[in-house]
Amino acid sequence: MAQQPMLKFTSIPRDMPEKRAAEERRTDFHEIYAEYAAAKAAEQSARCSQCGVPYCQSHCPLHNNIPDWLKLTATGRLQEAYELSQATNTFPEICGRICPQDRLCEGNCVIEQSGHGTVTIGAVEKYITDTAWDKGWVKPISPAQERPESVGIIGAGPGGLAAADVLRRAGVQVTVYDRYDRAGGLMTYGIPGFKLEKDVVMRRNDQLVQGGVTFVLNCNVGEDIGFDEIRAKHDAVLIATGVYQSRDLGGPGAGAEGIVKALDYLTASNRAANFGDSVPEFESGALNAAGKKVVVIGGGDTAMDCVRTAIRQGATSVKCLYRRDRANMPGSQREVQNAEEEGVVFEWLTAPKGFTEADGQVAGVLVQKMRLGQPDATGRQSPEPIEGADYVEEADLVIKALGFEPEDLPKLWGVDGLEVTRWGTVKAEFTTGQTALDGVFAVGDIVRGASLVVWAIRDGRDASQAILDHLNQSAAVAAE
């Protein structure tokens, strides 16, 4: 009788890829996890219970067919596993690296609930597609038939690129406009290399170029080209700009030198460390933590990226201030653990109320100690200040990682009829992304607010199907 290839969670323990020692990894920007070997990937995939209702799949925004590609990996059918993974996810090797699996697929794994330790879904997903690239299974896009219609996509982040991939495979002519000199959005310039090495993003960009997608880079819509001009050039337009406007922080001393925005800091680091670009603000020390006492304000994944980057740049100390406790922080607990291993100190239940300065340069953060009070509308306990418990945290560099807000696109682009919500996000139909303007769609963070890469990919794929429907309807009307 053939041996059962799956359900080995009772006999095989959970085993993540080996993590490099903190002392080693804190000196470079390489990814911290090693790759699985084939035997280890198959072994860990075999732990899947193949449950009747796969919560891993239902809690994945892309509804990836996780149980099936785990079984294919466990039985050595790796190319089929890749093809199945790629069928629902434009960038599986990127999601395998940066998705918060502990909150999504792995956090809802049935065997995790039974105390056996979740299947290492993200690590296997990464292994499958990295192997596919190595083996040459990933091919350039080659549409079966070309279509005459064209679509303009504003924004080369995960949402825009996912839509470009789907539309190009359908034969549509695609042009992507982006303000940066490299495509990828926050995957390129926001997320540090120790979480997502940049050649992983660049090879996907190259695949799109080889497949016929046209990129117009260093292009600011509203300045270098008008939104109405883009609409006139294309049969449909997709807005996928993301949200890049940093939330600010006031208080005494808020204008001092050395208080910087997280995205400015991370972009400078990514350019210098991962691409070798000349970055004057980095070279001058303005956006470089080397030799400095660093304080990062915020508790999300962007804050974790900042603290871990500062460690690698050679900061003398790195502290993270967050107004709630560890259990209530929005960032990944896995990232907090990695940061602590690398030497970051977390100051829970603390909030800034101002800054001290010396000769115009920041010297410290005025910190207000907090406690958790009654739950707010979301059910989370609201932080409230403890009177008389203030202190000063010394700092040479303060990084504000307080989240992002949308830019005012109607004003920025001078466009009438593009409706926005009271939060400034673009109003768009659920699943289709259709806006109030005919033939104009919107996806990702500019619709949702700051969210996850995987949700942007989902939105981009969904909207591309709606765009194809729109193009087909337009073609049918024209043919009548």
UniProtKB/TrEMBL annotation:
Keyword Transmembrane helix set for record: no
Pfam families linked to this entry: Fer4_20, Pyr_redox_2
Domain of life assignment: Bacteria
Family matches, as SUPFAM superfamilies: alpha-helical ferredoxin (SSF46548), Nucleotide-binding domain (SSF51971)
Annotated FAD/NAD(P)-binding domain residues: 151-460
Region (Disordered): 1-24
Location of the Dihydroprymidine dehydrogenase domain: 26-136
Keyword entries, A-Z: 4Fe-4S, Iron, Iron-sulfur, Metal-binding, Oxidoreductase
Biased composition (Basic and acidic residues): 15-24
Protein name: NAD(P)-dependent oxidoreductase
Lineage: Bacteria, Pseudomonadati, Pseudomonadota, Alphaproteobacteria, Rhodobacterales
